[in-house]
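Cross-check.
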Amino acid sequence: MVRKKMELNFNNASHTFYCEDAIDFLKKTETKYDIMIVDPPAFAKHLNAVDKASIGYKNLNHEALKKIKPGGIIFTFSCSQVIDKQLFRKIIFKAAAQARRPVRILYQLTQPADHPVSVFHPEGEYLKGLVLKVD
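Predicted model, tokenized:
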């Protein structure tokens, strides 16, 4: 489907397509990137999945941090309700420490205004995003 959309939108431009697990792909690629977008599906839909999801977010971001060029930018996100923004930052800190990369948070992102958060349901702040500068 991606190939068809690329052909429709970009005529005969040459592109390479991959269909595989993102962590597996990052582990085996030798390519270093200037910009990366790490936007997985929700890893935790329930409180009992927080520990496993935290490991998944850490592993994915750790691999991304290993493949970003010095001075590169990573946009990383979590849309899991039960992973709050403080926990997400801690996960990213662990990934950066494990990758031994200096990382600065340039921006913190959240869902748009058309998804307001009820004070009675703070878990409704489901989308967390960080824009990271990696040295």
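The longest strand covers residues 68-78. The beta strands are 33-38, 68-78, 103-110, 128-134. Passed to J.P. for a second look.
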